[in-house]
Amino acid sequence: MSKLHPVVERITQRIIDKSKDSRKTYLDLMEREGEKHQDRNVMPCSNLAHGFAAAGEDKESIATKRGPNIGIISAYNDTISAHQPYGAYPPQMKLYAREIGATAQVAGATPAMCDGVTQGQDGMELSLFSRDVIALATAVGLSHAMYDSVALLGICDKIVPGLLIGALRFGHLPSVFIPSGPMPSGIANKEKQRVRQLYAEGKATRAELLESESKSYHSPGTCTFYGTANSNQMMMELMGLHMPGAAFVPPDTQLRKALTRSAVHQLAAITRESDDYRPLAKCVDEKAIVNAVVGLMATGGSTNHAIHIPAMARAAGITIDWTDISELSSVTPMLCRVYPNGSGDVNHFHAAGGIGYVIGELLDAGLAHEDIITVGGASLRDYAKEPIYDGSELIWRDTGPSGDEEMLRPVAQPFQSDGGMRLVEGNLGRACFKTSAVEKERWTVEAPCRIFKTQEDVSKAFAAGELNRDVIVVMRFQGPRANGMPELHKLTPPLGVLQDRGYKVALVTDGRMSGASGKVPAAIHCTPEALGGGPLSLLRDGDIVRISGEDGTLSTTADLSTREPAEAPEPEQGMGRELFGMFRSNADGAEQGGSAMLAMGGM
């Protein structure tokens, strides 16, 4: 085992120290829950009979506890391409379970919304809080107390964090995430970006734009750019919550089926009654959370995880903040250039050595914790491999050197020396700046600001030529409490056009930009948010704002001390947004995870 990097060691210990009391409280609860629910046969007969009434040939096994019973929580729907393959999974998994004397039941389903579908639409305001709903739905499914372990079927943006948060409240049970893999590569990402900008300038028709987008998102499987969905898959590998190497194997292949079969068999082998008990509560510890952060930085992953990681950690009694994340980023070299940070997508990344190569490099450099409890190996070292299926046997082999150093490099020759996600702070609050997708000469922008409340207003100002100058666009009242903290990708094409015209342009917002954050410098997730008097609410058009990823600055030269906060817009209704008023009213800040559920639950 390589010697741990001193900064990684120091920050891990800092997280352990500040989480000491909350982590103990959580683990004590999980121990009590495990003892209380370890034998479903203590349930009253009527309750138990209800639980297996529809189990068909598995009834007797479940009734007599002949073998482990695996609960399946599925985020299947056939609107989201990444989740469409999951429709076929439960029948297959039941067969795989019977092979080893186990059983499997669908314990419940969760919603699974796609930010790509809702982008720029009213439904996007439900997106972040869908994570809380998914966690709650997971808890409802597992509350039947019929299960010895849990299979989690989910991939995309809020879905994996929501599933993990919910499953962690049942952390006495072993849990494995089972992905379905990315769709085949479509048109070149640069071509997709080119058509989007042409459309923003009025130089391409809607039909031409739709044709381009349809060639990008074209079949079952996860979208192939390295956004939040694929960053989720990376993190599950770094935390040891997949079977090794499962993240980016395509759907409907023999290898994918072999990995799913292996996951089911493993779920039967690591239950409380086995000799190899691996409860989720013990797998997701401080070291695993640090590994997730390091993996995110090494791969240039989604900025959404600056919100999701604190929330997931909090559900396990662990406290981590943006200072911890920024300091880990400062010592983690960037090993990957995957679109939107590079030209190739996750399929090219996987073919070049993929996540197994990254994990091996990080372990050898002492940047990741090897000694974590994983669901599918003796340690994280078993994840520094790639799976192979020869038609009869699933094996794991060393990845070897990078197959494409334009996309994937060793620690000794990184693309840049740090992870590219930096904390910026000052008299406008604290925010995240993803430098990895931005050219270094654009890391610092100082210019007069123009303030907006909606993406549509930005588009109108752009079309009218009002932004043809050096400008920092401020989008405020976009935080969790204001409107659910939507992603603001409609801003990317017009701001990209302005930047290409030679202007110094940046974005400052208390909203999100996510894993598709592009080439325009942006301070996102600003906290405190504007609603409630945060600093962004005190800005006025024309104030000079400075954002710098180099020195970590987010500030204005304006005197904010004598100003009153700008009036916030009334919450919008329609598309179910009024149903989420409770979530908005009770949400905590972005740095704490932007969750109403965790805040209200006292976690």
UniProtKB/TrEMBL annotation:
Q: What class of enzyme is it?
A: lyase
The UniProt note on the cofactor reads as follows: Binds 1 [4Fe-4S] cluster.
Keyword tags: 4Fe-4S, Carbohydrate metabolism, Gluconate utilization, Iron, Iron-sulfur, Lyase, Metal-binding
Q: Which residues form the Dihydroxy-acid/6-phosphogluconate dehydratase C-terminal domain?
A: 407-593
Q: Tell me which residues bind [4Fe-4S] cluster.
A: 156, 223
For this protein, what reaction is catalysed? 6-phospho-D-gluconate = 2-dehydro-3-deoxy-6-phospho-D-gluconate + H2O
Pathway, according to UniProt?
A: Carbohydrate metabolism; Entner-Doudoroff pathway
UniProt cofactor(s) = [4Fe-4S] cluster
Q: Kindly indicate whether the keyword Transit peptide belongs to this entry.
A: no
Q: Please cite one Gene Ontology biological process associated with this protein.
A: D-gluconate metabolic process
The annotated region (Disordered) lies at 549-573
Gene Ontology cellular-component annotations: cytosol
- HAMAP family attached here? Edd (MF_02094)
Job description of the protein: Catalyzes the dehydration of 6-phospho-D-gluconate to 2-dehydro-3-deoxy-6-phospho-D-gluconate.
Family of this protein = Belongs to the IlvD/Edd family.
Alphabetized NCBIfam families for the sequence = edd (TIGR01196)
Q: What is this protein called in UniProt?
A: Phosphogluconate dehydratase
Q: Which organism is it from?
A: Altericroceibacterium indicum
Q: Which gene encodes it?
A: edd
